[in-house]
Amino acid sequence: MTFPEQVHVPDEVLGIIRTLEDAGHESWCVGGAIRDALLGLDGEAADYDVATAAHPEVVLALFPHTVAVGLRYGTVGVLDKDRVLHEVTTFRHDVATDGRHAEVVFGASLDEDLARRDFTINAIAYHPLRHEWRDLFEGAQDLDRKLIRAVGTPAERFREDYLRILRAIRFCARLEFTIDRATWYAAKEEIEGLRGLSAERVRDEWFKGLRTTRSVTRLVKLWTSIGAAPIWLPELLHSEGDSVERTGAESTADRDPVVLTTLVCVDPVAVLQRLKASNQEIARAVALVTGPHEPDGSGTVATRRWLAAVNDAADDLAALWQARNRAPFPWAATVREILERGDPLTRADLAIGGNDVVALGVAAGPAWVTCWTSSPKTPRSQRSSTSTQSATTRTSTSSTRARTIASDRPLQTWTYRWTTFRRSPA
C-alpha cells in the first residue's frame, strides 16, 4: 500500500496536536482511526488517538478542560469546545505485566511506543501537520494482504495482555481479514490466559464484536475455533449464527448484543451474568427467554394480549423472531396500529381508576368490574377522581349495564370499549 499524501483529521484533533507541538512536544495520530482511514472506513471510527512525548502532567497543564482517563498509563482525555473527549497518551514502553495490566514507563520514543502495540495494522502513525508516516512493522502491507499479524513475537504480545486474543478475533471478523498463521497458533497456545481477565473486559470485547462484525456466524466460529468460547462462553452455539445474516441484523446499526447473545447462546442469562452485564441487560435476556415469543393468533386482540404480556420486551422479541426466522415480524403493522391508537395494555393505562368506580356507587371490595374506557387513553395527570368522568360500570353478577351520562368532554371525540378487571379490596 502506498500511503496517501494526507488523510483527513478533525480540526479539534489538529488543534490538540498543534498545541502540543508548539510547546515542544512531538505528537502523532495513531491507532484505529488511522487504520480505518487507510481502509476507507473513515465514517466507522470516531476516535483519533494522539501519542505524544509530553508527560501527563504537561498535558493537564496545557489544556483547560481535561479528564484523568488513565494517568497511571499516561492517558489524559482532552475535551474540545463541544465537550468531546480525545485521548492523549504519552509515549511509553512496558517494564512488567501480569497478562491483564502493564507497568509502563514514560520517556520512550515514538518507535518504542509503536513496538508495544498489539498488531501491525494498529502500529501505524501519521503526523497531520507535517504529513509524515511511520510504519516500522509493515502494517500498510498487512492492510493490503488483509492480515492480522502481531507486532514482534506474537506470544510475547499476548502475554502482555491476553485480551489481545479477543481483539484479534474482533478485527478479523469486522474487517474480514485472516489471522497470520504464527499469530493464530500463538493465540491458541496462550488461550488459558483468558481465564485471568476480568469479566467486564471480556464482555466489552464480546459486545463490540457483535456490534461490528460483518458476519455473526464468523465471529462465533472464531471464538469457538480459537478456544475462547469454552472458557467464557460455553453456551455458545454455532449453528444459530447464520440466522442473522439475512435479516435486518445485517446492518451494524441494528445490532443489539443482548438480542444476539440470546440468538447464539443456549443460556443467554447465564452468559450475561458471568460477563457481569447490567441488571437491565440481564432482565432483557430473561424476558427474551420466557416470552411468549409471538402472539397466539393473527388478529388485533391476540396481538394486544401479547403486548400486554411482554410489556417492554416487545421490540426485543420482534428482533429475535426476525433473526431466527429470517423474515419480517408478521405482527409489526398490528403492533404499530395498537401503539398509535394508544390502546390500554395495563391497568395503569385505563382512563379511570378505582376511586372513579367507587364514586359511581360500586361498593369497595373484590368484584369483577367492567369499565367503559376510551381510546386514545387519557394521561394519568388528567384523570378525574369525581363522578363526573364519563364511565360505565357493572358487577359480574349484574345483567344490566348502568351508564353515566355526565361528561366534561365532547362525546364524539371518544371511542369506547369494555375493559374487565378484578377490583382489589379498598
Features:
two-stranded antiparallel sheet; 7-stranded mixed β-sheet; 15 strands; Beta Polymerase, domain 2; alpha+beta; elongated; single chain; 426 residues; Hydrophobic Seed Protein; 16% strand
Explain the overall architecture.
The protein is an alpha+beta fold. It folds into three domains: 11-145, Beta Polymerase, domain 2; 155-264, Hydrophobic Seed Protein; 347-423, no CATH class. The protein contains 18 helices and 15 strands. A seven-stranded mixed β-sheet has the order 3-4-5-2-1-8-9. Strands 6-7 form a two-stranded antiparallel sheet. A hairpin with a 4-residue loop joins strand 3 (66-70) and strand 4 (75-79). The protein is elongated and about 85 Å long.
- Widest beta sheet: strand line-up: 3-4-5-2-1-8-9
How many domains in all? 3
Largest beta-sheet characterization: 7 strands, mixed
Count of helix runs = 18
> What is the helix content?
25-40%
Mean pLDDT: 83
The CATH H-level superfamily of the largest domain is Beta Polymerase, domain 2
Number of strands: 15
Q: How much of the polypeptide forms β-strand, as a percent range?
A: 15-25%
The radius of gyration over CA amounts to 30 Å
Shape: elongated
Overall CATH architecture of the largest domain:
2-Layer Sandwich
**Cα end-to-end separation:** 78 Å
CATH topology of the largest domain: Beta Polymerase, domain 2
Topology readout:
Layout: H1 11-22, E1 27-30, H2 32-38, E2 49-52, H3 56-62, E3 66-70, E4 75-79, E5 85-90, E6 92-97, E7 102-106, H4 110-115, E8 125-127, E9 132-134, H5 139-145, E10 147-148, H6 154-160, H7 163-175, E11 178-179, H8 181-189, H9 199-212, H10 216-226, H11 229-232, H12 257-264, H13 268-274, H14 279-290, H15 300-310, H16 314-325, H17 332-341, H18 354-359, E12 367-375, E13 392-393, E14 402-403, E15 415-423
Parallel strand pairs: 2-5, 10-11
Antiparallel strand pairs: 1-2, 1-8, 3-4, 4-5, 6-7, 8-9, 12-15, 13-14
Helix pairs in contact: 7-9, 7-10, 9-12, 12-13, 12-14, 12-16, 13-14
